[in-house]
Structure formats: C-alpha cells, structure tokens
Amino acid sequence: MSAVAKDAAPAAITLIEAITQALAYEMRNDASVVVLGEDVGVNGGVFRATAGLQAEFGDQRVIDTPLDETTIAGLTVGMAAQGMKPVAEAQFDGFMYPMVDHIICHAARFRYRTRGRLTCPMVLRVPWGGGIRAPEHHSEANESIFTNVPGLRVVLPSSPARAYGLLLAAIREPDPVIFMEPKRIYRQYKELVPDDGEALPLDVCFVLRDGTDVTLVTWGAQVKETLEAAEALAKDGISAEVIDVATLKPLDFATIAESVAKTGRCVIVHEAPKTAGFGAEIAARLAEESMYDLLAPVERVTGYDTHIPLFRLEMKYLPSVEKIVAAARRTLAAG
C-alpha cells in the first residue's frame, strides 16, 4: 500500500510508512508545510520516508537540496522565520553536527531572543541509533546533546502509531522539534495506523505496561527489548511497569515519579553511551525528588562509553533483553 495514497482504507503499516503518511496528511491540509533535504524528492529519501511526496506535491514543496547539512539547517530556520513550516531531513544522526550552529544559536533561541514575538516552527527529522550494520556516523544515539539545549523539543517515537501521531504534533508545534526516528525498527513490525490526522500529545510519557514490582523506563528502539524483558520477568512472577518516555525534552517526570512511588525500583534503558546519557538526568531527578520512594539504587542499562563498534560487535553494544532482566533482578535483590 502506498502510504501517500488518498482515501486509502486503514491498514497495518511500518514505522517508516507511518512517517510518510503523517507528512502527506499534513502537507495536504496545510500549504505552509514543506519538506527538504538530501535526496528527499526524486529518490524519496535514503530510507524512503518521503517516497511519492514530490510526485504529489511538486518540487517547490518537496525540495532536493545540495549535499550540505549546514545549508539545509540554515534554509530550514529561514523558512520557519518567514511563516512556513519546514520539515528537514538529516540523512543520518551523525550528519547533524554541521547543523548544530543554526539549530542551537538560532532555531532554539527565536522565542527567547524576541521575547515571544517570533517562533521557529520547524522539525528536523533524523534517522537515529544503531542496529543496521552501518559505520559509526550512521549509527549514533546523540539525543542527550540536544536535550541540554533550552528551546528545543526532543521527540523519539517507538512504534508506527506513535510515530504518526507525534510527527503530526511536532509539525503543528510553534517551536523547533528534533524528531529522532529509530531506524533499527523502521520496518521491523506493522501496526494499524488510521490516517485520521489525530496527533498524540507531546511532552508526556506513555505507560505501555502496568506493573507493581519495578519500573522500566526507555525510549526509541529499546522499547521492544524492554517490553520483551517485562514479559520474561512476568514468567517468574515479577510485575514490571514499562514507560516509553517519547518526548525527552521537556521531560514528563511526573509519570516516572508516580510509577516509582508504586514500584520502589527503577531501571533506565538507552543505547547512548552511559556517561551523561539522558538516563543520568532521569536518575538524578529520582535522587532529588523520589529518594524516599526508592527501595534500591537506580540501575542503568546503556551503551558503552565508546563509539558504536562496527558489525560483529554492534548488537553486543546495544541493550539486550538479558541485560535488562539482570538489572531488574539486581534492584529486586537490593531491597
């Protein structure tokens, strides 16, 4: 099924098809939405996220840019400043760094700099994370760099339905959004995603599984392994609550704190390096605000403090079901 076909009946689609479906819906209903990036038009993007969009909307709204991330970011900020709603694509997570000047020095500061007179309604879509046997610039989990920047939202969907609803919300948001898409699960499974234009709320966590013994907090591709770990724990009578953070910045800490108040234990799972990863922020908040609810130290299951290794060791680097289960068991044994 073409994700951009009009009047199509609801069907089970992959995460990448949900991205295409959301872009097409918003472009049909808002003429100010434009898409730009390297190969997004004729070729439909390196992962085919924009396949068919240029044929439907033309090359003035689906724009193939030069191979120049700095220029892409500058064009995106300029378009947003002039009342458009640009959705730019960085082909890979490691290609974001030339964009940082425009994103941090300008996009993130428009509202502050003008005391609210101007905003920057732009989205930067980024295929994110490891697990596809690609070199290190194509496999980075660099979300914590952007969560440290005031004025940015950082969103990381974990399923086709959440990708569709959260991307719609991101495009409609008046401030800049870094929208990181876990490429490892782009085509891993399908969900029924009605093309109804219903956005999901930004800035909230999603509780995917209720539990009473331990809270498992994660985002992106690691949601799959975390849910599988919860299933494995359940076979031994351990009830794990699973939280998909989804919007890392601003963080919905209240949902996490409420869960930890119930379970008394917390395991945070992410594939980024451990040191200064976003899990450290959540752990610090728990230490500051939920210390007396904790029955055991917070555990983190993360990548290592190195660049992601190539090919043979890649899956050893990433969090696994076994590592998550072992961390949960340690929290239960500690108190």
From TrEMBL:
Keywords: Oxidoreductase, Thiamine pyrophosphate. The keyword Oxidoreductase applies. Signal peptide: none annotated. Its EC number is 1.2.4.4. Its cofactor is thiamine diphosphate. Gene3D superfamilies: 3.40.50.920, 3.40.50.970. The keyword Oxidoreductase applies. SMART domains: Transket_pyr (SM00861). CDD domains: TPP_PYR_E1-PDHc-beta_like. Residues 13-188 form the Transketolase-like pyrimidine-binding domain. This is 3-methyl-2-oxobutanoate dehydrogenase (2-methylpropanoyl-transferring). It comes from Luteimonas terricola. The lineage of its organism: Bacteria, Pseudomonadati, Pseudomonadota, Gammaproteobacteria, Lysobacterales.
